[in-house]
Write a structure and sequence with these properties.
Blueprint (H helix, E strand, L loop, with lengths): L7 E4 L35 E3 L2 H4 L5 H13 L12 E3 L6 E8 L3 H6 L5 H6 L2 E5 L6 H7 L13 H4 L2 H4 L2 H6 L13 H6 L15 E3 L2 E3 L2 E5 L5 E6 L6 E3 L2 H4 L3 H4 L6 H11 L6 E3 L2 H8 L6 E3 H4 L10 H8 L14 H18 L1 H13 L18 H7 L4 E5 L11 E3 L3 H9 L7 E6 L1 H8 L4 H15 L1 E7 L5 H8 L5 E8 L4 E7 L2 H10 L4 E2 L2 E2 L1 E3 L9 H9 L7 E6 L2 H6 L4 H8 L19 H4 L12 H8 L5 E5 L10 E6 L2 H9 L1 H6 L2 E5 L6 H9 L17 H24 L4 E8 L11 E7 L8
Parallel strand pairs: 1-8, 4-15, 4-26, 11-12, 13-14, 13-15
Antiparallel strand pairs: 1-11, 2-3, 5-27, 6-7, 6-10, 8-9, 16-18, 16-21, 17-18, 19-20, 22-24, 22-25, 23-24, 26-27
Helix pairs in contact: 15-16, 16-17, 19-32, 26-29
Length: 779
């Protein structure tokens, strides 16, 4: 075993001044926990945002292409921000991954909402996606980029010599100059290069040979200006057998008076080295192992100046060729750790300042032994505007993983497999991720095709289940109470889509379908136990197998991130507001903003009988909401980010969603629910995610009005239902594996599609969007 060079650790962060925070040095302070997981999103990391109003409208394949083109090419190529979504810090998007899932519609996702844990928790943006008549995977590659400015896009393939184009430094880092943090090793690279990422129990290479093996004997630390801030001899814990003086320059006489221990040195380094500092060294993994230290932000010069097949240059060789400086000379007795540390620092600084391309071209013959031969000029073909071709022109590769299909991409960039399991396994095993990867998963769709005769009934069942989530049964009503009377009464909780009267030989009941989930929940809380012309009515949910998990579904929806600051508001007629004498119990229920669990409904027998709420005798003006009136009433509770009014649901708007800047505003409004009722407002925590507003509109309108209403029954037997659930759970796990394997900064897109050849709008798909960060890797 060869002895290592003296441990040399270089702090790549300048001494911080009070007026110049670390962020100005291009390094974001990262808080870490034991194990090294990042806990904060770096300040300038890429992210996506979609305004609430736009989330309520489905996006088309063309609009998705807008997003992909801008995320990949940005303003530098003349591409404009997407019309529906904003990409922040687009230059920090490190890649794009699109997973196309066939056969799983939006309605099927919400039918099995609780099972799809990865999809519902890992993505902060979710928007309805309309099916396309084209093959989505193929469309992504062949779609032309409009208004492309080729003059502003670098074309390394056209200007680089062949020997340089395939050089290991260029294939790893590209040709552009980048900042300090671009060369910091990722977690995967730390593990691959044997850096300590957990407390090390085995020590590999140390300075002096003792009875227990090699142990540290000297350590040096310099700052980013090359000034030595630490140079200590360290007393080994065990008896020294060989001081290795020819390498270390250390003798027995030098170590005899030393009392500094490894623990003392560790404490000094922790004091001198901030958590957010970038540590620079040559083969630094050996040094950190010897020091028994873990540090997450590392630049290794032996990996910057790469050789073929994983071989590394010696620090002495790099210093001589690049820095024109002699170190570790034979005249001296051993190496000088401070000199080695400064050399590593200057090599890293030179690489960052010059950029990979200049480093390779200036030192190609001296370091790598290549001589450039003149190449005959090639005719320049007309530029292609296809997305895949543009990416290849700019040096970024596209790739397709999926079943054998007609995909508009070079066969050398396609990987075909027969099962989803093989596709995901192959994708995760890649040594280098392409910039654009499209993964197509078809197992669930293939399973549905085998049951093609049952597919129409399956989709009808999903739509019926959604309608049941938005429905309540109510009654008994007095004789002569009409459908119009019922609709007028229940409209105080939200927009009513349909009322169906259900008559028995003795009494009248009604089924009320709301357009929003909140309407059904509020009806249970507000109208259950109401006295109507002397008749106490009961309001309850439909009871069938599909509704058994309803409360858990609603609870999970209400706790979604997009609903954290959102409030549902209904504007009541003044006479109805007076009739709704909200009890203390309901007031507490509405005020309990900290509870994520929906409280059970309780009868409200305290509501007085009034002619106004019965509906027949009410002649007051219909309520109407405007953005101005809502803002005027609710701005007292906190700063309002946006107000979303319904789109053409009724002639007049009488319900809205309010998004506050923070959750405190929402909580304050809920706490004042009793006073708001006096002002003719009924409030409830938002349950419906923004994109679901459009989905509910489509699903609840999918059944013709003239059809007779029937009790919802599960069409398939229990065996099918169990198999369906099992397949979707397996799909969710595979999507999670793909997501975890993505490099940090990758924009992840998951598309749920009924069928890429379908043109139906009755069964919309769903698009999930997120830019992956390191703290999402181990969820």
């Amino acid at each position: 075993m060869k002895a290592s060079l003296s441990p040399s650790v270089t702090c790549g962060e300048k001494k911080r001044k009070n007026e110049a925070p670390a962020a100005d040095e291009g390094i974001k302070r990262l808080k870490t926990e034991e194990g090294g997981d990042l806990q904060e999103r770096p300040r300038h990391s890429a992210r996506l945002s979609v305004c609430l109003d736009r989330l309520q409208q489905p996006i088309t394949p063309a609009e998705l292409m807008e997003l992909l083109h801008f995320a990949a090419l940005g303003k530098a190529a003349g591409i404009k921000q997407p019309s529906w979504c904003r990409v922040h810090h687009q230059r920090n998007v490190s890649g794009i991954n699109v997973v196309v899932v066939e056969g799983v519609t939006q309605s099927l996702f919400y039918k099995h909402y609780l099972l799809m844990e990865h999809l519902r928790t890992s993505y902060t943006t979710r928007v309805t996606f309309t099916p396309s008549s084209n093959n989505v995977a193929s469309e992504i590659f062949r779609c032309e980029v409009p208004n492309m400015d080729f003059s502003s896009v670098s074309k390394p393939e056209e200007t680089l010599h062949t020997a340089v184009r395939h050089h290991p430094v260029i294939t790893t880092f590209g040709t552009k100059r980048r900042g300090l943090t671009a060369y910091v090793l990722s977690q995967q690279q730390l593990i691959k290069n044997r850096y300590p990422v957990k407390d090390p129990s085995i020590m590999f290479m140390f300075q002096c040979l003792t009875e227990k093996g090699y142990e540290l004997a000297r350590v040096s630390l310099v700052d980013s200006d090359g000034n030595c801030v630490l140079d200590d001899l360290v007393k080994p814990q065990n008896r020294v057998l060989n001081y290795l003086t020819q390498f270390s320059g250390i003798t027995a006489a030098m170590l005899r008076p030393v009392t500094t221990t490894l623990r003392d040195v560790q404490a000094k380094i922790r004091t001198l080295l901030p958590d957010n500092a970038v540590v620079v060294g040559h083969s630094l993994n050996n040094d950190l192992v010897a020091l028994k230290l873990i540090h997450q932000h590392v630049i290794d010069t032996s990996l910057l100046y790469r050789r073929e097949f994983g071989q590394k240059f010696k620090l002495k060789v790099l210093a001589e060729v690049v820095l024109k400086r002699q170190i570790q000379s034979e005249e001296r007795s051993g190496h000088n750790p401070t000199e080695d540390a400064v050399a590593a620092l200057e090599l890293a600084q030179y690489f960052i300042k010059a950029g990979p391309r200049q480093v390779v071209e200036l030192h190609l013959e001296e370091l790598w032994g290549y001589k450039l031969k003149e190449e005959s000029p090639k005719s320049t073909p007309a530029p292609s505007y296809r997305f895949a071709d543009i990416l290849q022109t700019t040096g970024r590769s596209p790739a397709y993983f999926g079943k054998r299909a007609d995909v508009a991409l070079d066969l050398s960039h396609q990987c075909w497999y027969s099962s989803d399991k093989e596709i995901v396994s192959s994708f995760r095993k890649q040594t280098k991720h392409p910039f654009l990867s499209v993964v197509q998963l078809s197992s669930f769709y293939n399973y549905l095709k085998r049951r093609s005769a049952n597919q129409p009934q399956l989709y009808n069942n999903m739509c019926a289940n959604l309608r049941e989530m938005c429905a309540v049964f109510a009654g008994p009503f007095p004789a002569g109470f009409s459908k119009r009377d019922v609709k007028r009464m229940f409209s105080c909780c939200g927009p009513v889509r349909r009322v169906q009267m259900l008559s028995t030989s003795v009494r009248n009941h009604a089924k009320v379908e709301f357009r929003m989930l909140e309407g059904a929940v509020l009806a249970l809380k507000v109208l259950n136990g109401l006295s109507v012309l002397g008749q106490t009515i009961k309001v309850q949910r439909p009871v069938n197998k599909s509704m058994l998990d309803l409360d858990l579904n609603l609870e999970t929806l209400m706790s979604e991130k997009l609903n954290t600051n959102r409030l549902y508001v209904v504007k009541l007629r003044h006479d109805v507001a007076q009739g709704l004498n909200i009890s203390a119990k309901l007031n507490r229920c509405l005020s309990d903003a900290n509870s994520s669990v929906l409280p059970p409904g309780r009868p409200m027998n305290g509501l007085p009988q009034t002619a106004q709420i019965n509906g027949k005798h009410s002649h007051s003006a219909k309520p109407e909401l405007s953005e101005e009136s809502v803002r005027e009433t609710f701005s007292m509770f906190g700063s309002i980010r946006s107000i979303s009014l319904p789109a053409k649901i009724a002639k007049r708007a009488f319900h809205a969603y309010i998004e506050f800047e923070d959750a405190e505003g929402k909580h304050a409004a809920l706490a004042s629910s009793g006073r708001l009722v006096e002002d003719s407002y009924l409030v409830w925590p938002s349950i419906t995610p923004p994109h679901l507003l459009s989905w509910i509109g489509l699903m609840t309108e999918s059944k013709p009005e003239q059809e007779e209403e029937e009790t919802v029954e599960d069409f398939f037997d229990g065996g099918f239902q169990d198999q369906e659930s099992s397949l979707l759970k397996k799909l969710d796990r595979r999507l999670s594996k793909v997501f975890r394997s993505l490099p940090d900064g990758t924009m992840s897109v998951v598309l749920l599609l009924e069928d890429t050849s379908s043109t139906s709008s009755d069964h919309p798909g769903l698009c999930f969007l997120e830019v992956k960060m390191e703290n999402q890797s181990r969820r």
